[in-house]
Amino acid sequence: MDGLLTVFVPHATAGVVVVELGAGSETDLLAALERLLPHDDRWRHRHGSPGHGADHVLPLLASPSLSMPVIDGRMTLGTWQSIALLDPNADNRRRTVQLAFLAG
């Protein structure tokens, strides 16, 4: 079956990314995020853990949704690509991911 898969996370601090997983990529990704969005006291959004305001800026860099073509029932990801949920918010460990498939 061919179509389009949409992945969506209905959370203010989460994004969905296509990224290589393994071989240290996750650590590199989180280190880069910390450099771009440090968890310190510069943020006006101050409830929750220290630096939590940075978590609310994350969706500017990692969209809360993505669409992926599906051909013959398989996502068209490259060899090293995976879809991953990205959410550095330590205050809420429970997340929902919504999937929608549009057959073509």
Show the helix and strand layout.
Blueprint: E1 3-8, E2 15-19, H1 25-36, H2 53-57, E3 65-71, E4 74-75, E5 82-86, E6 98-103
Antiparallel strand pairs: 1-3, 1-6, 2-5, 3-4
**CATH evolutionary superfamily:** YjbQ-like
Percentage of residues in helical conformation? 10-25%
Number of strands: 6
* Largest sheet entry: 4 strands, antiparallel
Distance between the termini: 8 Å
Structural class: alpha+beta
Percent of sequence in beta strands: 25-35%
Structure description:
- With 104 residues, the protein is an alpha+beta fold.
- It has one domain (3-103): Sandwich (Jelly Rolls), CATH 2.60.120.
- The chain is built from two helices and six strands, in the order E-E-H-H-E-E-E-E.
- It has helices at 25-36, 53-57, and strands at 3-8, 15-19, 65-71, 74-75, 82-86, 98-103.
- The strands form two sheets. A four-stranded antiparallel sheet has the order 4-3-1-6, with no helix packed on it. Strands 2-5 form a two-stranded antiparallel ribbon.
- The longest helix has 12 residues, at 25-36.
- The model has no long low-confidence stretch (mean pLDDT 93).
What descriptors fit this protein?
2 helices; four-stranded antiparallel beta sheet; 16% helix; alpha+beta; elongated
How would you summarize this macromolecular structure in one to three sentences?
This protein is of the alpha+beta class and 104 residues long.
